[in-house]
């Protein structure tokens, strides 16, 4: 992997961690009762953000999951592709045989035939699992590499020119408190083996003073048994507090990482979290924020929010990123609910007198929806296009479009409404 002995030691330690503690911990038998969905890599999102909501799914599709772990993302996408009958290949590439064994067992329980497993470092993707790929997922991995720009460049080189990526890296502010505890554990751990380190972390968590920033960060509770409803699994604790190589990114650092690989963000998930006006009341401040560049607004939102623990971003080759996402322009576009019951949402909005109560990673928000939204929402069923919705509402196109755009801004902002067509 690398000639620097320190880096080689860290590479080995990262691999040893994921052999001992595949992440996230999953029981393959659970595939019989549920499909885990989320961002990035959810098929309707991939279509919306990277293919203008208009990909022809009859055409072959290749996806790479770099550092696919125990398989959450690749199982979801492989299942969604299989359900739609897409001629697809989904490649799971990971250094950890133990993690890959869990992902493979999950795919076997589901009877998925479109997954292929390749063991090895993602830097060697060109030899081990060459592209071109229409889609590359790298979720929770780049921030553990010795050289994240080189890792991302290796993946980018395997991306088809009209393809895109779904990435997740840690956020600086939302992880406030994590790194001092990591440093404390490093200094206390001596030569302890991995299970002994986990035991040490459990003891330290029970002994931190009230002033400690990890204790004081209410938005981070992965390490708290109360929040998990049970003892925190060893692998989760290790990943958060004992990782041998771990860094976080603020928005400008992430943009630099992307641009170094010839990529640009299409959208952060959820988009609303990256809008300064979501956090501000003062019209003058909102006006000043609106005058900033897009990159400055994303960075400002992160600084205002303070609770963004991870950055999930869909990214595309820089030359096509601005055009990659779907837009609610044409009357033939179909709005798709993304994991939400629109009828229930309409009832909640009616109860809230037009206000929609949302939660941005633990920050409650009350968002106004325009009059008529409670009537429109239950009509959005993923089948009607905008034209048909206008007719069902008994509205002319322009009146309808003004209403729809306001509803879309809020619901797409929360990643609850996507487009197709
Ligand atoms: C935190 S887990 C994330 C798993 C998965 N992407 C997810 O989001 O559920 C990180 C994964 O990256 C893998 N990994 C770390 N460094 C790697 C490298 N250089 N090449 C390939 N995989 C790597 C680990 O083995 C582990 O399975």
Automatic annotation (TrEMBL):
Example of a GO MF term: 3-demethylubiquinol 3-O-methyltransferase activity
Native source species: Marinibaculum pumilum
Region spans: Disordered: 1-40
Residue ranges of every copy of the Methyltransferase type domain listed in the record: 66-163
Enzyme Commission number: 2.1.1.222, 2.1.1.64
Official protein name in the record: Class I SAM-dependent methyltransferase
Any GO BP annotation: methylation
Enzyme's top EC category: transferase
Matching Pfam families: Methyltransf_12
Taxonomic path: Bacteria, Pseudomonadati, Pseudomonadota, Alphaproteobacteria, Rhodospirillales
């Amino acid at each position: 992997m690398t000639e620097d002995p320190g880096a080689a030691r860290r590479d080995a330690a990262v691999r040893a961690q994921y052999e001992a503690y595949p992440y996230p911990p999953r029981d393959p038998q659970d595939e019989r009762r549920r499909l885990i969905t989320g961002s990035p890599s959810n098929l309707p999102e991939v279509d919306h953000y990277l293919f203008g909501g208009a990909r022809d799914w009859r055409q072959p599709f290749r996806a790479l999951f770099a550092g696919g772990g125990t398989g959450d993302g690749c199982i979801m996408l492989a299942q969604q592709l299989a359900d739609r009958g897409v001629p697809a290949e989904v490649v799971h590439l990971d250094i950890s045989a133990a993690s890959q064994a869990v992902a493979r067992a999950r795919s076997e329980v589901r009877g998925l035939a479109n997954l292929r497993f390749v063991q090895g470092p993602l830097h060697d993707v060109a030899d081990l699992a060459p592209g071109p790929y229409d889609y590359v997922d790298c979720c929770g991995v780049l921030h553990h590499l010795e050289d994240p720009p080189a890792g991302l460049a290796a993946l980018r080189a395997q991306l088809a020119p009209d393809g895109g990526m779904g990435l997740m890296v840690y956020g600086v502010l939302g992880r406030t408190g994590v790194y001092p505890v990591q440093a404390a554990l490093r200094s206390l751990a001596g030569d302890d083996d991995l299970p002994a380190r986990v035991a040490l972390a459990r003891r330290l968590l029970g002994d931190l003073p009230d002033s400690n920033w990890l204790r004081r960060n209410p938005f981070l509770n992965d390490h708290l048994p109360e929040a998990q409803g049970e003892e925190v699994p060893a692998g989760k604790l290790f990943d958060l507090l004992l990782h041998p190589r771990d860094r976080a990114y603020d928005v400008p650092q992430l943009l630099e990482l992307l641009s170094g690989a010839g990529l640009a963000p299409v959208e952060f998930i959820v988009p609303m979290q990256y809008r300064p006006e979501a956090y501000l009341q003062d019209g003058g401040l909102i006006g000043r924020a609106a005058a900033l560049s897009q990159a400055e607004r994303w960075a400002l939102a992160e600084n205002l929010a303070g609770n963004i623990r991870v950055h999930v971003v869909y990214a595309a080759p820089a030359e096509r990123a601005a055009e990659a996402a779907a837009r609610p322009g044409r009357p033939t576009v179909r709005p798709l609910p993304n994991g939400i019951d629109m009828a229930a949402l309409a009832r909640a909005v009616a109860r809230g007198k037009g206000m929609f109560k949302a939660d941005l990673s633990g920050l409650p928000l009350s968002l106004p929806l325009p009059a008529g939204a409670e009537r429109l929402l239950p009509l959005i069923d993923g089948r009607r296009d905008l034209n048909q919705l206008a007719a069902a509402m008994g509205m002319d196109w322009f009146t309808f479009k003004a209403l729809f755009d306001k509803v879309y801004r809020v619901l797409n902002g929360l990643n609850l409404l996507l487009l197709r067509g």
